[in-house]
Write a structure and sequence with these properties.
Number of helices: 17
Strand content: 15-25%
Strand order of the largest sheet: 14-13-10-11-12-15-17-16
Largest sheet: 8 strands, antiparallel
Radius of gyration: 23 Å
Number of domains: 4
Distance between the termini: 40 Å
Length: 473
């Protein structure tokens, strides 16, 4: 059976035999592949499947990331709600979507595409007479390169404007890991004094990690442990004053027992570092900055933001506006970000990445990690460009949340949520209001959204009003 695609309106059929067809752009939402070694090593199969499902359900959020592409096909692990397609069309004006879905989703969508021969054949046909495809993705993974190799086997020329070459792809996992960015910081101290990280060590295996962490906790009354590459807060342990016994022996045993609950702590390097006393006045205490390195190597600064994070380290969303960080500190983090971007570019990285930081009460700005891929804020940036315009950084105050929990057991339809939030939905004339970023997540009693307003006070009012209106569901 021929793979079905999703479309709101029919576009004009191409002229048979037409030779000047534009190159087809194919975007693959492969979020789970970014951390597949971590997900596949999780001890609890229920938690493992839940992680895959979160990644799968965030796929429709990236419609907002692709509204400017006219000749576009999106490959997602799950079908997108037609009502959500209509909603995005109403907001952005994009009315033609070509969406392909593999007949199964394992979490490794690039491999799913290869194995679904009907879909793969359609992908080959998209290359048309020119036998060319422009291929982009959420992350550049080993599975992504397997798909490229398979397409090349059919004589197709694949252009990847947001990816390094395969021989340079090592830099993704290296710089995108907790240990890799720490090594870069240690190596770069003389060249970029502002590139610093909180005091820490890289070790292997739970036993050594628990010993080092216990010693640091007893001495400093706090400690953070990070597996080399976690996901959505998993793989990070934050212990604050009073969380653990204050004597070394019992503290070590408590940490070791926690680490042994998941196999991934023994499969990857572990970073043990000091707990930073954050300064919430600087981007909420957790500033971040995002860049894009073009295929030519040119570095493009996109935006800085404050991250919205739960106490356990779970990332929720971002807060974007030029005033969330003062000029002196913003100049510093932009400078540090450009230095890191130069290092990535020199090693062949191409595409999106961010640098997450921690603002400390001692006045320092510590780098905490780097996500070498599209990020939890990329779709917000692209949505802002589409709905507000290129001056969104000054013209709008933006709040996002990828994981607002609805009442337990409540799984409303998109229409129910739209009806409940109708008084505050985004208005294209005023350029203010509430935007629903995903319909798929509603099946998990979770709402992803973005709020746009003229200032922080109004943005907070809209967000809080939404929480009140959602109680009716």
């Amino acid at each position: 059976m021929k793979q079905k695609t999703q479309s709101i309106t029919q576009s004009t059929d191409p002229i048979p035999g037409e030779s000047n067809k534009p190159e087809q752009v194919v975007y693959i939402f492969n979020m789970a592949e970014d951390v597949w070694p971590f997900i596949s090593s999780m001890s609890n199969p229920v938690e493992q499947r839940a992680e895959v499902e979160v990644c799968v359900n965030l796929a429709d959020r990236d419609l907002f990331s692709n509204v400017d592409e006219s000749n576009l096909t999106i490959i997602t692990p799950r079908k997108i709600d037609p009502d959500f397609l209509q909603y995005v069309a109403q907001l952005t004006g994009k009315r033609k979507w070509n969406i392909l879905v593999p007949n199964k989703h394992s979490g490794e969508i690039c491999l799913d595409v290869i194995q679904d021969r009907n879909l793969f054949k359609e992908l080959v046909e998209l290359a048309n007479g020119a036998k060319k495809l422009v291929l982009t993705s959420y992350t550049v993974s080993p599975q992504f390169f397997q798909l490229i190799a398979e397409l090349k086997g059919y004589g197709i020329e694949v252009y990847t404007p947001e990816a390094p070459t395969e021989e340079n792809a090592w830099c993704i996992n290296f710089f995108g890991s907790k240990s890799g960015i720490r090594q870069l910081a240690q190596k770069s101290t003389a060249l970029e004094p502002d590139l610093i990280m909180s005091d820490g060590l890289i070790c292997v295996q739970s036993l050594d990690a628990s010993r080092i962490a216990a010693q640091k906790y007893v001495k400093e009354d706090g400690v953070v442990l990070k597996t080399n590459k976690g996901h959505t807060g998993m793989g990070v342990l934050i212990f604050r004053p009073g969380d653990l016994p204050d004597d070394y022996q019992n503290c070590q045993k408590a940490i070791f027992n926690i680490l042994k609950q998941n196999d991934y702590w023994d499969k990857f390097p572990i970073v043990v570092e000091s707990l930073v006393n954050i300064n919430p006045a600087v981007g909420g205490g957790l500033p971040s900055i995002e860049f894009k390195i073009q295929k030519s190597g040119r570095i493009e600064f996109l935006y800085y933001c404050g991250m919205r994070v739960l106490p356990d380290g779970t990332f929720l969303g971002v807060e974007i506006n030029e005033d969330i960080i003062n000029d002196r500190i913003s100049a510093r983090i932009i400078d540090t970000g450009f230095f890191i971007a130069e290092q990535y570019a020199s090693h062949g990285y191409r595409g999106y990445f961010d640098v997450d930081m921690v603002a400390a009460k001692n006045g320092e700005i510590y780098v905490s990690e780097s996500n070498v891929r599209r990020t939890g804020g990329t779709h917000v940036y692209q949505m802002a460009n589409s709905l507000i315009g290129k001056d969104f950084f000054t013209d709008s105050y933006i709040l996002s949340n990828n994981a607002y929990e609805l009442k337990a057991g409540v799984r409303p339809s998109l229409k129910q949520v739209l009806d409940a939030l109708s008084p505050i939905l985004f208005n294209k004339k005023t350029k203010e209001g509430f935007v629903i970023a995903s319909a798929n997540l509603l099946t998990q009693s979770t709402l992803a959204y973005v709020v746009f307003a003229k200032n922080k006070k109004k943005a907070m009012e809209i967000e809080n009003r939404a929480f009140t209106l959602l109680k009716s569901l």
